[in-house]
Amino acid sequence: MKNYNFDENFVWGVATSSYQIEGAAGDDGRGASIWDEFCKIPGKVVNGENGDVACDHYHRLDQDLDMMADLGIKAYRFSIAWPRVQPEGKGAFNEKGLAFYDRLVDGLLKRGMQPFATLYHWDLPQALQAAQQGWESRDTAYRFADYARKIGSVLGDRVASIATHNEPWCTAWLGNATGYFAPGNEDLKKAANVSHHLLLSHGLALQALRADGVKAPLGIVLNQSPAHGATNSPEDLAAASLEYAKFVSWYMDPIFKGKYPAEALQWYGDNGPQGVIREGDFGIIGTPMDFLGINYYTRIFASASGPKRPPGELGFTDMDWEVYPQGLTELLARLNAEYTLPPVYITENGCAVNDSVVNGRVHDRERIDFYDLHLAALADAASLGVDVAGYFAWSLMDNFEWASGYAKRFGMVHVDYATQKRTLKDSALWYRDVIARHAAQADSLEA
Ligand code: IFM
Questions:
Q1: Cβ distance 264 to 245 under 8 Å?
Q2: Is 235 annotated in the active site?
Q3: Which residues, in sequence order, are bridge partners of residue 348?
């Protein structure tokens, strides 16, 4: 096993999200989310599946926390379901919903794990969608700041960090341009407007939390990839450059440079967000952050005639995503050169493997190799001067993989959905050893 070169404070974690694991969709006053509605639309989710039960984590909280503690996990990244704590997305809060996250945070701390909270991992209260088209409305950004403020007042003294959004590109683009995710719009202009309101809500939430004196480090989680041309032709390289601008710079530039990237703005043309940008917005969006979370899975492989299948020298995951660990080093080095970055966490990294339990074991060698290669790539980025603060494997356990339903398994713990039995995969045991070894190394450094 490799010893990756991270400093002694490096955070070793795992990540999940509310809709993907909690279940208990109708319990204790939880309101409906846009994903509850989206899953009802025929053809949107493989096998018509949904998150009604998922991993039943809501009812198995203590058991799952014990399992994490047994694995030696140091930090847990989870998301809060907005409709569970504020069913209508505005107005009254739901004490029973808040109590669940209170128990979660206390349960982590009691077991020696740091809570990393995310406020929005795609489960918008359906009431906001119905009343004001969700993120198409500027008002939703202000409702989000109210919700953030409430979470800050309840959990802000105990969490290790608060991220506003998880992967706003997915919310904006997959949810509104391609219709692949909730709410299922296929309208470029809506996607552009939504992306602006998401960024605005991020800044407003940071400001609200700071105004209330929340001390936890604050940031955002963005999914990012380097983009390569399928060939070195000027046309393919231009296509790669544009894809990078639409995917990465579209979120980084407003936050760190106070503007949208010209290349992507030009591509959007009349469908861009210009109509919803108000004076002062970029000042809000650029509110300084304490950390940046990056989710990394693969690279973009672009050509002038559309996306191309990459060579996949290290293979493809069960999502058919190319395994491309060196892209993580490249991405981080580029970001570090282009922006003044706060400390960076890899807030998600992992792969779907078509694995199953055989005689009580799950031999997911591919997943171990995937993590191993990406941790090495991350260590390379650290050695190039990127301030890398931690790594969160996606995911703790198999869960509801959105439009792909339950067939795609990203967990280091196998979940049998019929019985809710958890089985540690080989990758979980491997990760336990990685964490233990690096913790031991850190202890000897401290001594
Ligand atoms: O499962 C998702 C997660 O919700 C967000 N990032 C990517 C993961 C794998 O697709």
A1: yes
A2: no
A3: 295
The whole-angstrom separation of Cα 221 and Cα 386 is 17
pTM score, whole prediction:
0.98
> What is d(CA 430, CA 363) in angstroms, rounded to the nearest whole number?
11
Q: Which of 167, 330, 366, 401 is catalytic?
A: 167
Q: How far apart are the first and last CA of the chain?
A: 23
pLDDT for 29: 98
Q: Which two tokens stand for residue 252?
A: 């980084």
* pLDDT per residue as tens digits for the range 158-199: 999 999 999 999 999 999 999 999 999 999 999 999 999 999
pLDDT attached to residue 201: 99
- Hey, what CATH class is 11-446 in? alpha beta
The active-site residue out of 88, 243, 348, 401 is 348
DSSP H or E segment with residue 444: helix 426-446
Which residue's entry shows tokens 């469908």?
Answer: 271
Atom in ligand 1 nearest the alpha carbon of residue 319:
10
Asked if residue 164 has its Cβ within 6 Å of ligand 1, the reply is: no
Q: How far is the CA of 289 from the centre of ligand 1 (A)?
A: 23
Q: Helix and strand tally (H, E) in the chain?
A: 17, 13
The predicted structure's pLDDT at residue 443 = 67
DSSP output for 77-95: EEE--HHHHSTTSSS---H
Closest C-alpha to ligand 1, atom 9: 401
Q: Which residue has the higher pLDDT, 444 or 181?
A: 181
398 within ligand 1 shell (Cβ under 6 A): no
Residue 348 annotated in active site: yes
Taking the CA of residue 401 as reference, the ligand 1 atom at the shortest distance is 1
405-436 pLDDT, tens digit each: 999 999 999 999 999 999 999 999 999 999 99
- Nearest residue to 349 via CA among 296, 396, 426: 296
Q: Is 64 in the pocket of ligand 1 (CB under 6 A)?
A: no
Ligand 1 atom at minimal distance to the Cα of residue 348: 6
